[in-house]
Design a protein that fits this description.
The protein is of the alpha+beta class. The mean pLDDT is 86. A three-stranded antiparallel beta sheet has the order 1-9-8, with no helix packed on it. Helices cover 27% and strands 34% of the residues. It binds FE2/S2 (inorganic) cluster. FE2/S2 (inorganic) cluster (FES) binds at residues 100, 102-105, 121, 123-124, 126, 139-140.
């Protein structure tokens, strides 16, 4: 009876040591695995740029374009459509978020009859200049966010919007 008890204790110690050793090994190996696959993850990040429109469709007047992509939530994939205001400033592509920086309503271009050359937010009469700068004296306190972009083979690809401040 006593012998069985000792064996059982020995087995317990063996399992405990194996478990602890395994846990420590995982702690050492996982960062190395992460380091090894990091370039793959970086490549995915690059491909997060979304093809939205041909440069030849842009004018110097802001137009709304749809940016469509799939968002993976882990348990399901959602089809997302975002609107982006885009125009040309000389040769430079400008892509602005339509989300008002006051409380998140949607702005549109030229819909305020008194200020046809501005973005207008109907919720609290927020206004933004053509480059997204908020008009002083209106509710928004920062410019419209601007999308990262690049032009590849005549197409405009967009990344994520960031604050202009
Ligand atoms: S949400 Fe646009 S002005 Fe308030």
């Amino acid at each position: 009876m006593e012998k069985n008890h000792n064996v059982s204790r020995r087995q317990f110690l063996t399992y405990a040591l194996l478990g602890t050793g395994g846990f420590m090994a995982a702690g050492l190996i996982m960062p190395m695995v992460r380091f090894g696959v990091d370039p793959i993850l970086q490549a995915d990040a690059e491909d997060d740029m979304i093809d939205v429109v041909g440069v030849d469709e842009l004018t110097d007047v802001p137009q709304a374009f749809d940016m469509e992509y799939e968002q993976d939530h882990g348990w399901h994939v959602e089809q997302v459509t975002e609107t982006v205001w885009m125009f040309l400033e000389g040769d430079e592509v400008v892509a602005l978020s339509p989300t008002c920086t006051h409380l998140g309503c949607t702005v549109s271009w030229g819909t305020d009859a008194d200020n046809p050359e501005q973005f207008f937010c109907p919720c609290h009469f927020g206004r933004f200049e053509r480059d997204g700068t908020n008009v002083p004296g209106t509710p928004p306190t920062e410019p419209l966010h601007r999308y990262d972009h690049e032009v590849r083979d005549g197409r405009v690809l967009l990344g994520s919007p960031s604050p202009q401040l």
